Amino acid sequence: MKFDCISSDPVSRDKNYPSGVINLLLHQGNDRLHGLMYTPSGKGPHPTIVLLHGFPGYEQNLDLAQTLRRGGFNVATFHYRGSWGSEGDFSFSNVLEDTELIIRTLSSEKAENDYGIDRDRIILAGHSMGGFAAIMGACSFQHITRVISIAPYNLGAVSKKCGRDSSFRDKTVEMFEECTVPLKGTGVYELLEELRIHEKIWDLTIQAPQLKDRSILLIGGKRDDICEKEMHHDPLAEALRTEKTSLLSEKLLDDGHSFHDTRIALAENVLTWLQKQKFSIR
User: Fold this and answer.
1) Omega before residue 40 within 30° of 0, cis
2) What's the number of domains the chain is made of?
3) In what order do the strands lie in the sheet with 46-52?
């Protein structure tokens, strides 16, 4: 299925309510988190996608954000505490708290009035660690009924394997060393210890019963060497199918973790799923 918004600019534009961008400044205690929201043409209210980036956020999927905006969605993205200029210290726990913060913020009456958000149609989406946070965030908010999880990084499963496989732990340490460069207030071994403490509750497979009646799009990469299909994708998909608690759609693309060579296919799959969810795509 082809969608004009992937490769074409909008044909019609609302001069009174043009497409734009809104700076989002979120407050988590005394810490300020930086974000923005792409807004489509038209008065709205518009369905809104919260797009969560991974660890640490080298790939932010902003091409997908722009495509979705052209398709008629608000798309909000932000940086977690301690990452990319947002204040405070980075931790995986803070990622989950910050995800809950943006959900509460965009679900408010003020956001509906100020930003043209349809509060009944908020979709959580994320890539890698952001895919993990999207699933965990949906478990905390009953009004979030749709989730797009792209190559989700199962933190609990990672911790468990680190405990039994020293070579895998060494590989994880090496990756964490690279990923902590743009982060503040944390380090490799602090993050590994945090995973160890939370490894049971952060295993995505045990969250399946909490996702009752949610529609979930799970996208994986057949050649993903960071979120390996056998470790991250397959067990989660099986848990969701076994529990029969969610409306699961699966797609595997022949690509690696960041889908460098399948960006159009990635967008097409997301848009196809959104259309099946009864969203009108421009």
Assistant:
1) no
2) 1
3) 20-28, 31-39, 74-78, 46-52, 117-127, 146-150, 214-221, 246-253
Give the integer Cα–Cα distance in Å for 198 and 206: 13
In a domain, 179, yes or no: no
Nearest to 98 by CA among 117, 83, 108: 83
- Is residue 109 in a domain? yes
Q: Which domain holds residue 258?
A: 4-154+207-276
Taking the C-alpha atoms of residue 85 and residue 281, their distance in angstroms, rounded to an integer, is 34
Q: What confidence category does residue 38 fall into, taking pLDDT thresholds of 50, 70 and 90? A: very high
Q: Between 241 and 157, where is the model more confident?
A: 157
**17 three-class SS:** coil
Q: What is the pTM of this model?
A: 0.97
| 31 token code pair | 């810490």
Residue 113 CA: distances (Å) to CA of 108, 110, 130, 239: 9, 5, 27, 39
Name the amino acid, one letter, at 279: F
**pLDDT tens sequence across 76-121:** 999 999 999 999 999 999 999 999 999 999 999 999 999 999 999 9
CA dist 108 and 129 (Å) reads 25
3-state secondary structure of 110: helix
Written as six digits, the tokens of 176 are 């964490």
pLDDT above 90: percentage of residues in the chain: 94
Q: Are 56 and 180 in contact (CB under 8 A)?
A: yes
pLDDT for the residue 261: 98
Name the token pair of 115: 């930003």
